[in-house]
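# nightly structure sweep
# worker-07 picked up a monomer target from the shared queue
# config: single-sequence mode, recycle default, output format = structure tokens
# input follows
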Amino acid sequence: MATKNFIEELEWRGMIHTIMPGAKEQLEKEMTTAYLGIDPTADSLHIGHLVGVMILKHFQLCGHRPLALVGGATGMIGDPSGKSQERNLLDEATLRHNQEAIKKQLAKLLDFDSDAPNAARMVNNYDWMKDFTFLDFIRDIGKLITVNYMMAKDSVKKRFNGEGDGMSFTEFTYQLVQGYDFLHLYQEYGCRIQLGGSDQWGNITTGTELIRRKLDGEAYAITCPLITKADGTKFGKTESGNVWLDPRYTSPYKFYQFWLNVSDEDAKRYIKIFTLLDRETIGALIAEHEAAPHLRALQKRLAQEVTTMIHSEEEYRKAVEASSILFGGATSEALHALDEQTLLQVFEGVPQFTVAAADLGRSFLDLCAEKTQIFLSKGECRKMVQGGGVSLNKEKVTDPQRPVTGDDLIAGKYLLVQRGKKNYYLVIVA
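# output follows
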């Protein structure tokens, strides 16, 4: 059996909300299979999913077998838990595409491929629900659970008590469909535990009840708290939307910046939840941070661990270099190494000017005081250059008459002009 105790590991990390009686004993008795459902509404996970994925990771590291269930069938229905509106439903082709993309991301964190007895598996509830007729379902499953039982769930009560536009029959049956998933996995894979967020408690316990009533079996629920920020707002959302794991939607630089910029309070919690660092290391980091909060030791280590885990060591290093361009003493080489997407993200919000490609070859003075409004006059430009306060692409400009050529371009079309320490201007050569 495993060296680490799963429940103890999650408890000190602050990742346990509720444990059903008997779950601890089951985990201590033998290698146990547990599943966690993932909603396949996009072809990438976002950091809101990461809590559940880390729980599966710990489960596997503690010697147990994780099942990642992609909710293809339930994605076609929509889960009412915590929501006041029905969601848009997806077709099968989209669901399959999303499933494959999600598996690739999960494979970075879970061992699917080894021949170990606790190797992870991915399953899709669409595979066993697609041939299930309505009549079969109401005969074999629907009769086992009373409407009274279903109505008593908080997720249902809220919707009946005036939150949103009511609840469709489709959504009302969601807990039965999810409950059947648990029943099916119990029968097919010996799955004894369902893991999920605390908002899933009602749905999960419906599953344990189905297993009890239909098979006289024992199954358990373990939930984790819903992660919020210290100010009470939703975790994982920024002004521009979700923070995705896929670099197509959130670049490694932006991903890194998200973790780097969390508050001190949040960093203390997140480093336990979103990294695999042990208790002693985290304790030392928190102590270091509290001794010198301005150095942001916690945030830096958190951003390093999560960016490396989701992307790679190389992408982490690139993100650090990109960050230092704006906030530190980065070199011209580091600037020229940036790809266009990262460059634009680093300098998001700085004033931009566009010049024609035909203007290349002109002097720095002409470009900055005539073709753009970086300087109000050539005299102002000369004076600042003489004072050593002007850079082009992170290199000091010593001669205002120096020609600006194609060799100076970053990513083939950009120039970065800096006035003083903090005033940046991006010149786009079109």
